[in-house]
Structure prediction request, 51 residues.
Amino acid sequence: MSTSGLFVMIASVGTVTLLFYWCVYKVLSTPHETEKVHGVEFQTPDIAEDR
Prediction:
């Protein structure tokens, strides 16, 4: 493998690794996130309103 190929591989793997750890950090460090989660009740057209 050439030097430039090795550089591109290290840069791409490093970028994906940094993005993964940044996403994990953002998910774990957001305060009071469970208070913002809301349930969604879907009303499908095949269910009658009068039941």
In short: The longest helix spans residues 3-29. The mean pLDDT is 83. Helices lie at 3-29.
